[in-house]
Design brief:
The complex is a heterodimer of chains A (124) and B (113). Chain A has 124 residues and is an all-beta fold. Chain A has strands at residues 3-7, 10-12, 18-25, 32-40, 44-51, 58-60, 68-73, 78-83, 92-102, 111-114, 118-122. Chain A is built from no helices and eleven strands. In chain A, strands 2, 4, 5, 6, 9, 10 and 11 form a seven-stranded mixed beta sheet that branches. In chain A, strands 1-3-8-7 form a four-stranded antiparallel beta sheet, with no helix packed on it. In chain B, strand 7 (68-73) and strand 8 (76-81) form a beta hairpin. Classes of the chains: A mainly beta (124), B mainly beta (113). The interface between A and B is medium-sized, with 23 and 20 residues.
Chain lengths: 124, 113
């Protein structure tokens, strides 16, 4: 059974850092791109970042570029999102999700399995 | 960036009746290399993550009931629920995966009339 479980969310002050993790099971992680999304009442669903199965290709939303870094350790079946210089507008529920299609060297597809999400609150 | 806009924002339909949600993209999502539209539909119930319904605009994901159908090409797309069931009460989103950032529509809330 495919499972994705996020962890690492919490309350952090503006300017602080958090590292989110996505633990994957039930599929060959190295064969699939993984994405991070976030959801807020104000801006709805947003794509945040993506990483190819091999880890060689990454992409970011403009709003997080230069502050967030996505990485993966296929041997540990985990994908991480390092979030620095956090702002109030980064507050929301963060989800990791698996690409529908096998992509070792690409990030371009819809997401068929999602985790339950982890909540990030940036506030003083 | 590609902007995706859904209409209407909310929709109330009687049980067993048809519901149609529209999705418009600011640029074409049709790839000339493979003749596919890079458009997906999701359903999100309260307290749950989104659930993939359709991809390539009109291909039903495994396990999705056939009362769901997707249509359209280029910049204009639709999701139709042919006979609304109680379990279809949710917020529906379209998403383009043609170019990063892979943007979503603002969502359409479907309720029972």
């Amino acid at each position: 059974e495919v499972q994705l479980v996020e962890s690492g969310g919490g309350l952090v002050q503006p300017g602080g850092s958090l590292r989110l993790s996505c633990a994957a099971s039930g599929f060959i992680l190295s064969s699939y791109a993984i994405y991070w999304f976030r959801q807020t009442p104000g801006k709805g669903l947003q794509w945040v970042s993506g990483i190819s199965g091999s880890g060689g290709i990454t992409a970011y939303a403009d709003s997080v570029k230069g502050r967030f870094t996505i990485s993966r350790d296929n041997s540990q079946n985990t994908v991480s999102l390092q979030m620095n210089s956090l702002r109030a507008e980064d507050t929301g529920a963060y989800f990791c999700a698996k690409d529908l299609f096998p992509h070792s060297y690409s990030i371009r597809g819809p997401s068929d399995y999602w985790g339950q999400g982890t909540l990030v609150t940036v506030s003083s | 960036d590609i902007v995706v806009t859904q209409s209407p924002d909310s929709l109330a339909v009687s049980l067993g009746e048809r519901a149609t949600i529209n999705c418009k993209s600011s640029q074409s999502l049709l790839s000339t290399s493979n003749n596919k539209n890079y458009l997906a539909w999701y359903r999100q119930k309260p307290g749950q993550p989104p659930n993939l319904l359709m991809y390539w605009a009109s291909i039903r994901e495994s396990g999705v009931p056939d009362r769901f159908s997707g249509s359209g090409s280029g910049t204009d797309f639709s999701l139709t629920i042919s006979s609304l069931q109680a379990e279809d009460v949710a917020v529906y989103y379209c998403q383009q995966y043609y170019n990063t950032p892979y943007s979503f529509g603002q969502g359409t809330k479907v309720e029972i009339k």
